[in-house]
Amino acid sequence: MTTKSAYDKVALRQILSDDNCRAIDNEGRVFPPSHEVYLRISNTMHNKGSVITPKHVHTIINNNRSGFRDLIMEVFNIRSRELSINDSNNSVEIYADHKSDALISFTSIRVNLVISQEKWQNIKPQEKIYGKRIYWKLRQGWADVVAETLWVQHHVDCVFVFKNNNIYLGANAKFFLTIEGFCRECSAKIYCTLLKEPSKGVDVILQCNVDGIKATSHSGNKRRQLRGTRRIEVANYLIDSRKDAVVWRRQEAHRLKQFGENNPPILPSNEVVRKAKEQRLLSKYGLQFANPALNLLKSAEH
Known about the structure:
Elements: H1 9-16, H2 36-47, H3 54-62, H4 68-75, E1 83-86, E2 90-99, E3 102-115, H5 117-123, E4 126-130, E5 133-137, H6 142-154, E6 160-167, E7 177-183, E8 189-194, E9 204-213, H7 228-241, H8 245-256, H9 270-285, H10 292-300
Antiparallel strand pairs: 1-2, 2-3, 3-9, 4-5, 6-7, 7-8, 8-9
Helix pairs in contact: 2-3, 7-9
């Protein structure tokens, strides 16, 4: 059975430069997913031997993957600053300007992140004591939960590093929770808030602003670090299930992305996963081999 290949980016670039397949209006707004242009683009790509769904086309343009939205704006000389999406849950702003005859596009998004009550129970605030000071922080692993939710629900390509989370218990506090971070590649800033302490048994909704996204700065090579509780969980799973890093990563890729999409920034490389398993084996079974090759050999036995 033959397998489908990823979509042809060269062909898509040519098609999006055609006025009949234009997906952005003169004010810089991306057409909604229901617009007929996406079906037209999908059919044209199919005629060129490349399979891509209309929904996937919209996602690529709307998120400016591989700079395709920048391409459209440059080809059709779109220079305005407008709202691309504007509803109760999501809004996107496009900032376009000239610099050395090149179009530089920055995007700001405002989205809601829905964290399930099960995941919230794992990261909900806990009391911390530092000297005479008592304060509250989210539990270890909270950053991985936020990063994965951002990708799964909104496909944000930024490689986020979260620097801080603050819990405010005062009756007059503006927020119950605030989270800050930035993208390692494009330096976009992320700021998430939770107005009130969540009730028991309900999903938690974070309001997140991401300002200054520059998709052309995303190389697709950098990933969030596999560390903390998630690193231990992944390593233990590989050991207990006797699975190789390649198998686990393939399963995660199938869970996190659609066919033809780039690897998400939350998906670690095979080398990182393999190293996490090896280090966990050394720690779990008290292995102290000086030769890395022997460590790998012992790892294969588990």
